[in-house]
Task: inverse folding
């Protein structure tokens, strides 16, 4: 038995109980009683029967309707925070005489009992997944009551950053031999290019030139956290349609030179802000490099979610200063069905690409980062903006958000760290010549048009 | 595929890399450079190459000799604590105007960067096990420099309480089909009744009336955290020798009425104080109840590690006040080879049992808890002191620490919670009539002799 | 690790190579060369490179078109049979002086080299599955050339009876956690009540009151040999529609009293005549009895595939002698859409049930067995014909083959052996009173109408 | 899930029942009754309850003492052979008019019902292993009653050649992560260089430059059929002691150029004559070549079991004709403790090697094959006799059987087939120049001395 199968064997001997609360496990418990159970669980009295108490609480939480859930979160905010008086004393004690002892007291008192509550809820079978769902339910309420509920959310996110540490995550391939119960979740979670049927799913998983990988947490083994879909191709594809075409010839893996990450989806709203996408992409790239040695290039095929909105938000004055071909492009993409006309498509090309270059290289948020969220993600990971593709995605969604543009981000593994640092410290955008050369001359600097 | 095998399958697809740094992975790195790598890892610049950085640091740490290790811990204490000035400001701000904003700032600044450092070290393959070893190396230095190193230890323990949450642990049976690489660790870790040979190990695992269970962490699947050995018997055994006798007839499991937990061993000094023993005992009891329905009684067969030392520490005045048979017992157990004489054994019995009853029921630490550490553990779990056994362990060790006494703690599952609470809140010691009736009359209250 | 996971672990360490030739592994080899390779493989010279030779031959066979395949089978018949002259000598030698030596020679020479050829073809990765497919390809040719090709088929069937011995088969549950690659085969193989979509499949596998089990051979682990679908119900259902109704309330398994085997499908034509259905049903019944202790009754819900054809084949004279209600039923079921009229349905009931009773209890093949093949299967397994259900299956197929009738066969485990023997030796049909009482009075004995 | 883990998962869902009769499952059944059960099992009446009947018979067989077992085998010989009268008729019918029909009848009647009996015994859980043990018990009786019992043994061997077809066997690595229950069998089965302790076992399995592989049958997953131990070395070692030296430096696998098969052991006497050793060696060689690409040479380090006996059997006249150094060697190895004297060791070298060359290249059995059984095995596999090593094994056993000689057989994969054929058809012995050059001049041809 290899060291790997030690792990497998270890886990095969575990009762389902250890991670599964039961799909239908709910129990009506009145809110005050539920709060009482929570208090009991964090008290020392809760230790001996923690597993049962935690399971009861989680079943009770599941049965809450939205209004009740919001009130429960308020209770968690109000009754499970640090003891303010004690904390004030500790803060004063530290401020007046800083040192290990006062620091330690301060730290201890500053940690809200809520964190211990969440850790003990995790004693219940399936607790981890339930606590993730708890944050999922909390997030909508945050918008209207951030001041009160924010600390609850802080505690959950803080906990998840520890629990879902990449060191604890397991990457596994998703393929046509994967259990249907997981595959149906892949269909449901796919967030970039929707999967309509099992046959479409099969097209993305079964052919020899397709790969898919997901991160799992050992305590939630039936539900992926994030997954990425990869196409092995000869060259960098120019459109998503060519990648997904079921009639394309299947490439023998050893003839593939390019791995295209064409879709990456987070699966759980409750884990928002707990980032593992960067780790997944890099590990997949490294694994593929080893198992498919012919691969030379690792790129994404990515949407440009903010382009259309950014363009629509340009001021008339800004538009005035654009190049002629840019104005022409704006006019064309304003027409309905422009993609049906090859002539219009060609006419829009130079201007649209020029605008896109401005969008990526010049349009910045107040913090100096690009306005495009996908660009921020990949550039932050150390990738380079490699190519902008006209009519890369002419689905309704692709036209609505990006007038059909798609882009590649290139993961050049040896340079990823350096690019990450330049982006992190200087907000320096790594872009290929092919992209930078699309920028119009210096006369039309972005500041002028934004 | 059952939900259970989902978990198994999930894990079988993982490369060893994800949890294994390599047995021999060390690299000499000078201490200043190592500290520099640590700073780099916690900085934002460390994100992109965190996995590699973390692995390098852990290899470097492995290569440190003890003096270097102590200096590294000092660096962790001094350079990776909270920013004192900022924390002082935050403490003052909170003290003067408590509220969500000042609280949140205070909490954020109070958390030492060390914690983030440890979390990022966990990115390395095998990181979890390495960080446990880190604390193992730290503990000896603590004794002579608690003030400086204490906060480092606090951070590790705090982290481990989150990481090794029982909800993340997996219980698995250890039996004669377990891989040899794990079994050799069982031999090494056994802390109560040493296992001298593989044949002795076989005797504890293979017979139909023996069970053993361990907790594992999914990130350290080849190394148990804690394990318990169980004998299935007809009645509560009177001595450890009768349990371990290789010549005893093997009992058919369905004839067993009693499950005897005769050895429980923690495996890693680095996890000291992160308690899972209570969870293991209770889960094993519940599982056995289901799989061996004939079982009625769940008891330990436990050593009494503090008895001889306590007895030796009694003052002459205290001894004076003892009952006659107690004094006689003290005299007898002072003779060498007394256990070889049946007459002496019988003569010592009443006095020794009486002294033991005092020891368990009257001898208290300043906090009001029993002085016996094993008693504190099981009573704290909600067990009851059920029986005290004369000549229960007449091995050299058993005589040295307890003049041959052993005890049973009874886990009566329906009453465990209530007993736990009574012990936790009132330090109330649950003891059977058989035990309490051993106490000598009221004239000799413990206070008098201790 | 349990003994079970020993098996699992054993097999997890096997390279795919050991059982998988590759989906697309074909190679054009001219027929004479292919025959030459076969001769070489059975010769002693083939031993050293048997694995490669066998793989080459199987790839070559795959590439054959039908005409070539038929010629290959003819070659196998003609060139790989026993040596006729030698066999004649051996037969004469045995006939003239029977004894161990002449017998042993006779047996050795009587075994066709084909059998050794097939055994050696099995050396190739995936050989077992390929040899099953070989028989699948052979079967159609048999119809027109049984004399020549029959011995080839005999040899394959004889081999399969040894290789697919129930002792080598593995039963496993098929559920919603089963890999999609296997589930798509379940959809394809379902022979009784077709599964149109993945959602329909899910309805048969995922609900708590559904079960499905299949037999696999360890050398063909990705392809079931036979599977049975089971519904857990309160009572014996009266129609297949009620069983398959997706809107039915799901029954908690511990409330189930009846296990209904409503579909059993053989998966491979190449294994025709190698019977494992009886073993599967009995093992499923025994396993369910243990895991769902509330189950009391094990019945099938079975089609009546021969009823309509039998009825249509009755002679006018035979029909003349039927009871009035039987004639009426014949008239009604001859009308289109009769099931749409509750009045007609009711009017047809008594006559149709009476005719069905004749069909099951009186219509016999020359060998004295019932004409209904499903009845022969279940009665041969030791089941009892328990109930005949009017309008049990009013799908187009159900009406066409059985005018909507379905039946239950009851597996009363303690009586299965005795009923099997009575059927095997006396052709005695076990039928409940509910069924036998449907037979019309003695005046209309079956002989009269058949 | 990979195709491989499909297999694993398939098997993990199997109850132990499907392959395990139980270690202690025996039941006293009187011999006549046992014979009756066997008759019943082969009859059609046995079908319905075959699983139970088969289990009962196997338990009964286990309980038989040797005398009873011998009588049972006699019953199997006498009552479960072909019907002689019918077979005589069939033989005559075929002899007088050969054709498919008479052939088919002849074949059917010539097959003894014993074969069907054994196949049905295999229905029992654990049947396969039990039937192997049956043959193990039969073999000793064969020596004194081959005429009567031979046909029973023929049937079992014939069956095993089908059941234990290499296509059904699974190769798995044996290492330090293998379950102890299997490792203790490795200790017990090791037939070439005994393993005295678990520590010695560890030395053969755990170091990075050691490998061990075994064949298993899926129906006997806890018990290997055959295993081979391999050392990865820089060069071909000159002695077994250097291979087994626990103090040797461990070689990094990627520095290894040679794989030395230094021990190969069959595990079950009941499978004698069912050969899989050749397949195991070749598959291990191929697998190692792929996983350790630095390997260039695959050799055995083999004993020479027949050398001393052959030498002792030389006639005085034959000895007379030997070369002078040969006579000197014979004299030296006749002295006790000669290996303790370096001078004697050196003095014996040329003569002993010369004698060994005669032994391997000239000493033949009547069928023209070498007298050395290990030589017949490896040469028959297509290996070449590569080197003869003086003082290769100076253990007591090595001296007793071969005066300390060991040899290498070289597996040169591309030439294995051709050498196998030359040996199979011409009894041509492939030997290196290093070996053939040891032969003394033509004057001393083997015929003269043997």
Result:
């Amino acid at each position: 038995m290899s060291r790997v199968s030690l792990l497998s064997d270890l886990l095969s001997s575990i009762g389902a109980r250890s991670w599964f609360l039961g799909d239908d496990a709910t129990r009506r418990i009145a809110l005050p009683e539920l709060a009482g159970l929570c208090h009991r669980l964090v008290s020392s009295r809760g230790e001996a029967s923690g597993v049962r108490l935690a399971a009861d609480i989680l079943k009770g939480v599941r049965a809450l309707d939205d209004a009740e859930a919001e009130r429960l979160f308020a209770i968690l905010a109000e009754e499970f925070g640090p003891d303010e008086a004690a904390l004030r004393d500790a803060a004063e004690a530290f401020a007046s005489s800083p040192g290990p002892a006062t620091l330690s007291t301060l730290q201890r008192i500053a940690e809200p009992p809520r964190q211990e509550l969440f850790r003990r809820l995790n004693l219940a079978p399936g607790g981890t997944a339930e606590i993730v769902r708890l944050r999922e339910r909390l997030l909508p309420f945050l918008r209207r009551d951030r001041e009160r509920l924010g600390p609850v959310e802080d505690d959950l996110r803080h906990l998840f950053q520890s629990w879902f540490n990449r060191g604890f995550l397991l990457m596994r391939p998703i393929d046509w031999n994967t259990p249907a119960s997981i595959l149906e979740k892949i269909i449901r979670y796919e967030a970039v290019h929707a999967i309509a049927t099992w046959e479409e799913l099969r097209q993305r998983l079964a052919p020899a030139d397709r790969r898919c990988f997901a991160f799992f947490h050992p305590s939630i083994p039936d539900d992926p956290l994030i997954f990425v879909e990869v196409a092995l191709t000869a060259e960098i594809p120019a459109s998503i349609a060519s990648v997904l075409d079921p009639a394309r010839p299947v490439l023998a893996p050893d003839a593939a030179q390019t791995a295209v990450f064409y879709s990456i989806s987070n699966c759980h709203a409750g884990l928002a802000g707990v980032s593992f996408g960067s780790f997944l992409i890099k590990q997949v790239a490294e694994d593929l490099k080893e198992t498919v040695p012919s691969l030379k290039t690792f790129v994404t095929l990515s949407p440009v979610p903010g382009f259309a909105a950014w363009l629509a938000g340009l001021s008339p004055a800004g538009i005035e200063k654009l190049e002629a071909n840019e104005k022409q492009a704006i006019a064309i993409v304003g027409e309905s069905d422009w993609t049906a006309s090859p002539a219009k498509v060609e006419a829009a090309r130079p201007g649209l690409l020029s605008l896109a270059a401005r969008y990526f290289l010049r349009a910045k948020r107040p913090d100096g980062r690009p306005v495009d969220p996908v660009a921020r993600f990949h550039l932050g990971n150390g990738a380079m903006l490699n190519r902008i593709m006209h009519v890369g995605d002419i689905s309704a969604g692709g036209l609505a958000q990006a007038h059909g543009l798609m882009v590649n981000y290139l993961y050049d593994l040896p340079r990823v760290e350096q690019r990450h640092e330049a982006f992190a410290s200087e907000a320096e955008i790594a872009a290929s010549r092919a992209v930078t050369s699309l920028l119009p001359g210096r006369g039309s600097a972005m500041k002028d048009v934004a």
